[in-house]
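Problem 12. The chain below contains 657 residues. Write out its predicted structure in token notation.
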Amino acid sequence: MLHPLRIHTSYYENSAHKNRLNFLFCILIIFFCRNSSYSQTIPSTFKKKVDSLITVAPKTYQEIDEVLKEFRKDSTLLRYVNNRSEDKGYLYGQAYALNQLGRIYRDISSYPKALDLFQDALKISINANSIEFRVYSLNMISVVYRKMEAIKSSLDYSQEALELAETVPEPSTGLKRSINVSLNSIGNIYQMLEQYDLAIDKFEKSMILEKELDNKLGLAINHQNLGECYEAQGKLEPALQNFRKSLVYNEIIDSEKGKIICNYSIAHVYIHNGKINEAVNILQTNLNKAIALGDKKIVTIIYINLGWAFIQLGDYDLAETNLETGLSMARKYEINAEIAEANKFLSELWIKRDDYKKGMGYYKESRKYEERITNSLNLRYVNDMILRYESQMIAQRLSEENESVRLKLRKNRTILIVIAIFLILLMGILYILYRQTQLNAEKKLLTLEQSMLRSQMNPHFLFNSLNSIKLYIINNEKKNAVHYLNKFSKLVRKILEASSQREISLAEELETVSLYMNIENIRFSNEINFNVYVKDDINTHNIKIPSLILQPFLENALWHGLSSKDGAKNIDLEIKKGKNGFIEIKITDNGVGRDAAEKIKDSKVLKRKSVGIDITKERLANFSRDYENYFHVEIIDKFDDDTNPIGTQIVIYIPTI
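Solution.
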């Protein structure tokens, strides 16, 4: 495109007075030629696609690549994208196009041209303030320098790319891929320096990230690199496995170049394993494909490997032909590593032909290029760079870990404060609920105590007791009247005292119920035989029970069991030791039994409602919860041999408190 400019400026260079006019005329010609050329070669559909892209103006590699991916190998179309983007001031489009053009020249081993394009792309990326495209361009420059065996420069650019990419907290997919390229490039540099373990580490890290992105091209490249490292270490089996995995991925993405590289790598391992004929077949099949592809370095490598294979087969003429062809191409394209390799095999070939002079000449040539490569690598400098880079990475990792720990500590402290506040609130709520439960329980207990007091001091009992004493007075039985009046007053005092206490001794309870039975016996004309039996040497003063607990059961026995019975009327109260530390209190009457008592009660017009036992059971249940003990009441109906009811027995199981 620049030829018209050179032609016309040369034609008018002797006409100084027309320079200005000629310059403008030339510009017009260039513009016309450029546009007429594009109008002839650029499809209108592609132009519309590019214009649409520039209008939308995406800023990431992935978005642009989705539109232009199928055109990445067409240098004419890419130049159109670059020029059109430049006209419209679309820097991202320029950076993309220049990088893809650089890849095209890199893939045909035209490294200086590729380097210029990548450098231009880097400048535009900086102007666009795009970290993603800057990192991409830096990686591409690193790859070219590595292929040119300028290891110092390659490592510098890879490090810069990786450090720049890692400054982005949430990288895009394109930037993540660039990070993988950086890791792979550093791995390749380690590989060139024969630091295979370090290289393998980088390739494996890169491969983990490529799997996360499901980038099959990246996986293919890393498996290929791993295979080369394992082969260099003499680990041929894992090398072959990785080459084959790389081949599978390259077949999936249909990468012709990738398939060729994998196949000649597999052939290389076959030569090591003595499978020479298989290796030759693979190399010859892929030679034509490599020539069609146009990658001069790959073609050179295949020629040299064919020469090595034919040496192993003993076909020295074919070996010489292929090695000389490979050497010629390596010299033409300045591929020093392959020049050294070809000379090494030619030295081996001529020694096998017993021409030691030629063999030595090729050997010296091989050593010269190996030393040149060593000097270009500048191993000491690069090793220092590696050490510095690894130290920086370790320091950065430690810094990140420290920051992470600090953030975790702050987060944990915040969480602990929140948990502490929550626990305090929870404890406060639980305490309030507990106090509310306690107050409810106390209120319920107070209600029960009041109900119990009312049941024991009910008007009927008081009225009937005083009425009975009144009869003694009317009948002028002063002694009995005074005796029972004393007992009645003492009973009332006992009941009032007991009602203010939660528990009393069993001895006090027995004294109270004895007074109660004496008063009630007046109404039964002293027909009730009430007996108390204390067995097993029980000390009733040491046993605590809920206050006024026995009276309701005795009242029930009197008015439901014995009041309707003819003949002897007995109530026995027996206290003895039970199992598991319990005290058994048995109240036994010889009344009519519960069934008969219920029938009699139903037939009465005025029914006496007994609630004392229900209240007592509820009091026992509350008492059990408060003292974490167990109280149990059992009612047993007694029958004779003919199943006739002969009374009722109440058994109260009370633990010792």
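Discussion. The longest helix spans residues 379-456. Students who got a different answer should revisit the alignment rule from Section 12.3.
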